[in-house]
Recover the amino acids of this structure.
């Protein structure tokens, strides 16, 4: 589902492998989120209300006209108020990465029936970390991060954590435990910001991150970057990273999609966790109690 299209339309209703899904993107919060769109046995179709709360997209379903908050999947106005959509794991990655790893995959067509300049970014320069979020009215953003800093967020219910991209791009991999779940966060370079330049493809490289369970059966794996964990100051300017990781237990190599590509575990897939990109202000407005990951804590 290219952000070149979702930046303009924000919501796609689809069925994938027999599962009804709605795939959403809120440009003002940098949130790409997929939901199962079946509620109490009824398949819903979603659209945009044109409204915002904490600068975050408010959706509606066409069956009941209930309003839903994109950031947390909750129904906030209407007949289904109090219900919550089930999240489906999704990751923002570069087109090249998708094409290389899923060559038979389907791609959302630009033939949408609408006249939009797909590929252009209507929010050039928006993700400048030093600028304030657009149209934001809400709680003061807590913590030591700037409101517009990119974070990968994981919510385990009683406990939530945010992994800043500025940290992930330095250390590449985080082995962590959250809410009793052993997990790993992988970061790799090669994904452009959709909210930077005049075109989506011309955006600066901000990388891509995702979280996975690192327990396989009765074994908990611990990962390191195959590229090492050198600081940015020790890397050549503009040097790109392949995004390959190695588990210490078997020496198997893994890619950023959680797939073992060589070694004893080749062919194994780590279970994806629901992990969502946000600008910090957006996530903190809904989960201000979130733990901000810092290395060596």
């Amino acid at each position: 589902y290219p952000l070149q299209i979702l930046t303009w339309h924000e919501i796609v209703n689809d069925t994938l492998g027999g599962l009804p899904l709605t795939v959403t993107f809120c440009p003002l919060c940098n949130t790409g989120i997929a939901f199962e769109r079946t509620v109490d046995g009824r398949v819903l179709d979603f659209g945009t209300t044109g409204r915002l709360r904490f600068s975050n997209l408010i959706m509606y379903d066409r069956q009941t006209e209930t309003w839903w908050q994109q950031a947390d999947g909750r129904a906030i106005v209407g007949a289904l108020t109090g219900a919550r959509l089930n999240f489906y794991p999704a990751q923002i990655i570069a087109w090249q990465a998708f094409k290389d790893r899923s060559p038979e995959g389907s791609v959302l067509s630009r033939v949408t029936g609408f006249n939009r300049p797909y590929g252009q970014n209507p929010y050039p320069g928006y993700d400048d970390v030093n600028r304030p979020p657009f149209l934001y009215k809400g709680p003061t953003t807590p913590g030591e991060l700037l409101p517009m800093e990119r974070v990968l967020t994981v919510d385990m219910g009683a406990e939530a954590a945010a992994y800043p991209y500025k940290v992930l791009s330095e250390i590449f991999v985080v082995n962590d435990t959250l809410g009793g779940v052993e997990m790993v966060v992988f970061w790799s370079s090669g994904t452009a910001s959709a909210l930077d330049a005049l075109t989506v493809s011309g955006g600066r490289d901000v990388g891509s991150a995702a979280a996975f369970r690192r327990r396989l059966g009765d074994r908990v794996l611990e990962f390191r970057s195959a590229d090492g964990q050198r600081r940015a100051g020790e890397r050549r300017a503009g040097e790109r990273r392949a995004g390959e990781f190695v588990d210490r237990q078997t020496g198997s190599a893994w890619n950023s999609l959680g797939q073992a590509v060589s070694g004893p575990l080749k062919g194994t897939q780590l279970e994806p966790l629901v992990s969502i990109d946000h600008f910090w202000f957006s996530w903190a407005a809904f989960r201000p109690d979130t733990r901000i990951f810092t290395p060596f804590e």
Remarks:
- The longest strand covers residues 19-26.
- The chain is about 10% helix and 35% strand.
